[in-house]
Design goal:
Radius of gyration of chain B: 21 Å
Distance between the termini of chain A: 90 Å
Shape of chain A: elongated
Largest sheet of chain A: 5 strands, antiparallel
Number of helices of chain B: 19
CATH architecture of the domain at 55-187 in chain A: Sandwich
Largest interface: A-B, 28 and 29 residues
Oligomer: heterodimer
Radius of gyration of chain A: 24 Å
CATH topology of the domain at 55-187 in chain A: Jelly Rolls
CATH class of the domain at 55-187 in chain A: Mainly Beta
Helix content of chain B: 55-70%
Largest sheet of chain B: none
Structural class of chain A: alpha+beta
Shape of chain B: globular
Order of helices and strands of chain A: HHEEEEEEEEE
Distance between the termini of chain B: 34 Å
Structural class of chain B: mainly alpha
């Protein structure tokens, strides 16, 4: 009688411990403690491709190429980009994002973007970490000031192109907006194509 | 051939399994000879089984689970070996310590075929236990389908299928016997062998509900429900057995947490294979649309499998095998929610659909049964040839 009772108590205790363990592991799953790039690619799915741990780190002045002929087209692309073409990459839909990390926040910076083409009626609002910094309405090289207060201490920067009036063509069903060839971040006054 | 449930029939059952297993693998060897003659491939028989995901399993067996540095940048961008569950690799690591001189390919072939043989025995015992009327015939049909039927080659490949099938059959067997602690132990291994393994807890729930309510459906009321809850919670072995089942999965999740900081990495990594959780109905409709346009023939093939799988599950429901029915539905819907490509493997390896087929065939006339089994055998020959040739839809 007593043995049976002990057996029962032991079974319930083990079951309770197992349940607590499962809940603990699930909690670890909810607040995953992992690398930034991992979170962005696998969990939040904001990155198009896996670029490795530290792959978003950026050195000021480094060109971000969107054309396949460069041999090293950028992997920093989030949602809203089509595949890299020979000369540039089209944005698809109403939002296209780019990610950077390791950006210093001690001085003002300039975001430079080389736009090769726009769809008729299309334009793009340029938004840095949630704050609008300008607009692209025509082809050419554009510069946008990034005030140092825009970059957090973590050095993370998300550049978002808010596309207005994207459209397909007769032969191409993609909802295209702006065709970007190259972009770069640099210190104020050090822009290459003023 | 017929088998009874009595102990003395165990020997006959083992002999039948041994004969069928050997003949089926000899036939596969003949297919291999034909394939190597046509393709000019000089690789060994065991190497011909070493296809697709076997490379991922090999990486786990040889170097363990990878950290961030092991994630593929080129080719299959973002892919890592966390998607593959640890039980089969752990079993291979153990065998390699015992037999260090044997190559992984031949070891994988022999060890998984041996496990498959044991799984066939466990599955047959379950059939004999649950189908007292036609158990012998059903067991024979099931053995034939498993050895000679579609996708049997998976059980000799360096895949998790054979060990998963063994654990699944044992779980069903011990559930039917109401030996819940043994069920719990097998459940740990089951959940450590494949992501769907943990879902066996729903089979336990269905089984206990069915047992309690089967003779009392007419008097269903809240008081009876409360009585069921009390009775279930009072069964300490049932509670412990059920709680043990997910342990394999959660230990693996903990390992992944220490490795990459994400216990759900095994699921998140599916993104690299283009699999994301979607409404299964949406996937079926999309595939149906593609197949009706004749765009992708292999999609139509996968759809056919889903339809056949659903019909077989319907048969289980009609036959009042509710536990098998519920688990079969879960095994169909959950993998389907991430894509259609691996559905045949999940259906074939999920035990219950082939069991339903065997069950249905066992009551048919000998001529019809023979013809259908022969057709299944021919399909398997074609699929085995395709497996050796690395056809894209056999992953």
């Amino acid at each position: 009688m007593r043995t049976g009772l002990y057996q029962k108590i032991i079974c319930y205790c083990i079951s309770a411990v197992l349940c607590i363990f499962y809940i603990g592991v699930l909690c670890l799953g909810v607040c995953a403690d992992t690398e930034k790039e991992y979170k962005m690619y696998y969990i939040e799915k904001t990155l198009q491709r896996w670029i490795g741990v530290g792959g978003l780190r950026y050195t000021l002045g480094e060109p971000v190429d969107f054309f396949s002929e460069s041999g090293n087209p950028t992997q920093r692309k989030g949602i809203g980009w089509s595949g890299a073409e020979k000369d540039a990459t089209w944005t698809i839909g109403t939002t296209a994002t780019l990610y950077f990390s390791g950006i210093p926040n001690t001085e003002d910076l300039v975001f430079e973007v080389d736009v090769l083409a726009l769809r008729p009626e299309a334009s793009a609002r340029v938004i840095a970490n949630g704050e609008a910094i300008g607009e692209v309405r025509e082809v050419g090289i554009h510069h946008f000031l990034l005030e140092k207060g825009l970059i957090p201490d973590s050095g993370d920067l998300m550049i978002e192109l808010g596309i207005q009036n994207p459209s397909p063509t007769e032969n191409d069903p993609r909802n295209m907006g702006v065709k970007v060839r190259q972009a770069r971040l640099c210190q104020r006054g050090q822009e290459e194509n003023k | 051939m017929k088998f009874g449930a009595k102990e003395k029939d165990t020997y006959r059952l083992c002999a039948a399994i041994g004969v069928m297993l050997v003949i089926s693998r000899v036939i596969m060897w003949l297919v291999y000879l034909l394939w190597s003659h046509i393709s000019g491939d000089q690789g060994s028989f065991a190497h011909a089984f070493f296809r697709w995901d076997a490379g991922w399993y090999k990486s786990i067996i040889e170097s363990g689970y990878s950290d961030f540095n092991g994630i593929k940048l080129e080719g299959q961008n973002g892919a890592a070996n966390w998607a593959f569950f640890p039980l089969m690799p752990a079993y291979m690591v153990f065998l390699r310590k015992v037999l260090p001189s044997m190559g992984l390919e031949i070891l994988g072939f022999l060890a998984n075929t041996a496990i498959f043989g044991i799984a066939l025995f466990a599955g047959s015992r379950y059939i004999l236990l649950t189908r007292p009327q036609n158990g012998g015939k059903a067991a024979f049909c099931w053995l034939f389908i498993m050895c000679f039927g579609p996708y049997s080659f998976y059980y000799s490949s360096l895949y998790t299928e054979s060990i998963y099938l063994l654990c699944l059959c044992l779980c069903f067997y011990f559930l039917e016997q109401e030996q819940y602690i043994k069920l719990g132990v097998c459940g740990i291994f089951l959940s450590a062998s494949r992501n769907t393994g943990v879902l066996f807890v729903f089979a336990i729930l269905t089984h206990s509900l069915h047992r309690f309510f089967k003779d009392r459906m007419g008097e269903l009321n809240p008081k009876l429900l409360w009585e069921y809850v009390k009775k279930t919670l009072n069964d300490h072995k049932l509670i412990l057995g059920t709680c043990m089942c997910p342990l394999g999965l959660f230990l693996y999740m903990l390992h992944l947490y220490f490795l990459v900081g994400d216990p759900m990495a095994f699921a998140h990594v599916q993104r690299a294979w283009g699999r994301e959780i979607t409404n299964p109905a949406e996937i079926v409709l999309r595939t149906l649309g593609a197949a009706s346009r004749g765009a992708v023939n292999q999609e139509a093939y996968f759809l056919l499998f889903i339809v056949i799988g659903a019909c077989l599950l319907g048969w289980l429901f009609v036959q009042k095998h509710y536990t098998e029915f519920v688990l079969g539905c879960i095994f169909l819907v959950v993998p389907l929610s991430t894509g259609i490509a691996s559905i045949p493997r999940y259906i074939a390896g999920g035990f219950v659909c082939y069991l339903a087929l065997a069950d249905g065939l066992s009551g048919q006339k000998r001529y019809f049964k023979g013809c259908l089994l022969a057709v299944l055998g021919v399909i398997e020959l074609w699929l085995t040839y395709g497996w050796f040739s690395t056809w894209g839809f056999l992953t």
